[in-house]
Structure formats: C-alpha cells, structure tokens
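Lecture 7 notes: from sequence to structure.
We start with the chain below.
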Amino acid sequence: MRNTDAFWISGQRRTFLNCWRRFIKTRRCSKIFSDRLKQLGFNRSVEQCRIKVKKLRQQYIKVRDALQKSGSSPSIKETFIWYEDLDSILNTRPIVSPVDVVESYAEEEVDKSPDEGSLSSTADAGAAKADTSRSYSADAEDSDNNAVAVCCCSCNHRNITLLQWLLTALSVGFWMDIGQPKDFLTGMCMYLQSLRQQAPERLRTGPGFLGNVLVDPTAQIGENCTIGPNVTIGAGVVVEDGVRIKRCTVMKGARVRSHSWLESCIVGWSSSVGQWVRMENVTVLGEDVIVNDELYLNGANVLPHKSINESVPEPRIIM
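Predicted structure tokens for the same chain:
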C-alpha cells in the first residue's frame, strides 16, 4: 500500500489536521480520522492515517528542535508549512511531565456540550468524578466503538483507570519525603510533633529534657545532660554526663561520651562519639563509626566502619 504525500492534497490534509485537533485525546484516533475523511469523500485507510500522524509529528519535532537552537532563524518554520497548525495541536503539554496521571474512560456516549462545573468532589472519601467538560467526544457512530479519554492534562500516560471515577487515598497525619539526611531530620521533627498531639505520654519529660524528645526505655542518659528539642534516642544508646543534643537522631547501640555537643546530626547504629566532640550542620555517621575525642565535625558524611582522627571543618564525604 502506498502512503506517500502525493495522496495528501492540501484540502485532505487540512481536514485531517482539523480532526486531529478535535480528537487529539481520543483513543484510536486514526480510526476516527479515517472515518471522518471517508464521510467527506477522501478514501484514506486507518494505516494511512496512522503513518500520516507519525510523519507529521516527526516533521514538527525536527523544526521545533531547530528553532530552539541558539541563533536559529524563525524562517526555519517556512520549510514546513503545517508547523503553526501542528504547534497549536502538539505544543499544549506541560513543561514537566507528571509521574502518574489520573484519568477515566467513558464507555457511553458523552454529550457534545456538557454542563460546566460537572466535576464533583468528596473530601472525606478523596474521590472525584471525571470532568465531562474536558472530554473529547466522537459522534454517535464513533462513540459506540471508541472509548473517550478524559485526562487531567495533555499527555499520553493512561495508567490509572477506575470506571468513571478518579480516586485518591486519604493520608491520615503527615507525609514527608526523607530521601536525604536533612529531609530525614525534618521528617523526624514532624513525627515528634505528631506524637505531641496524639500520644504525648510517649515523649520524655522532666529535668534536662526540652520540647519533643523520644527516648527508648533501654537507653541510658547520664547526669547534667540537656536533650532536646526534637531528639530521638534509640534502644541501647548510652549518653554520658554533660552531653548536649538537639535536633538529632541517635540510633540503636550508639554511644555519646561526656561533654559532647550535637546539633542536626544522625548518629548511626553502634557508632561512638568521643568526649568533648562538637558535631553540627547535618553531620551523618554511618554504622559503627568512631569519632575520637575533642574533634569538630561540620557537615561530615562518614561512611560505615570508619574511624575519624581529625576535625572536619568543611562539609565533605569521608570514605
């Protein structure tokens, strides 16, 4: 079967582009294009329409990329006479593509003139019905055989389909991305604040404890220490006398020796912090790290099973 541009005279291509603009979000659009062209006396198969879509898209992207290069001339658009038409159709996508797109497919005919404001929501259930005012419908003869996509943005991702309803999961409490150490500490503070509101009896109170402090019952806290606010101390941790800790996590089995000062730090499992040590600025100790006495660590990220024998005045990774 021949699929050359000789088949596509100007009038046919104009009709084709008008169909594309109208049904860009409709599944199996090539079938719709073919049917519409046949109604207007242009005999074009579904395969011919599919290939034409592919070729026009490729030509558009080629010209668009050329225009985006530094020093390019606007006259480049003249090499592709349908550029403006394709740009109005294809250049409507968001700058940043979403990770997931929620959408619905209508299995019945959609009114060509849906009422505005048809999107309804229920906050408690976290459910929203598909917005029919944003749907693109074929005529009656097409809608019987073609599902109509209702998408929340102009993209091709159609991943989540639940009948004609868009569903969300209701999150109770708070949500925090803790992919980085500084975010972990922020999430820890949020968690402690939630405990203050929901289960304040789990937080440690008394002399030497400030604000929200969570201490495992098996941890040992020495005399004249000041702990908090926003500190979590894990199981089996030993904090010797005169230690100051704020906005830190001290994990299981770690030891902080006397008169050390820690702020915005993560002390890993079974690590040991020596006497008169100062650590701050999101210093992170991996598992089984030893920090010797009287050192200063500023934003150090120490990999597991390392021994630190000198101060780290500037943030860096110790491997």
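Points to note: Residues 1-7, 93-164 have pLDDT under 50 and may be disordered. The chain is about 25% helix and 20% strand.
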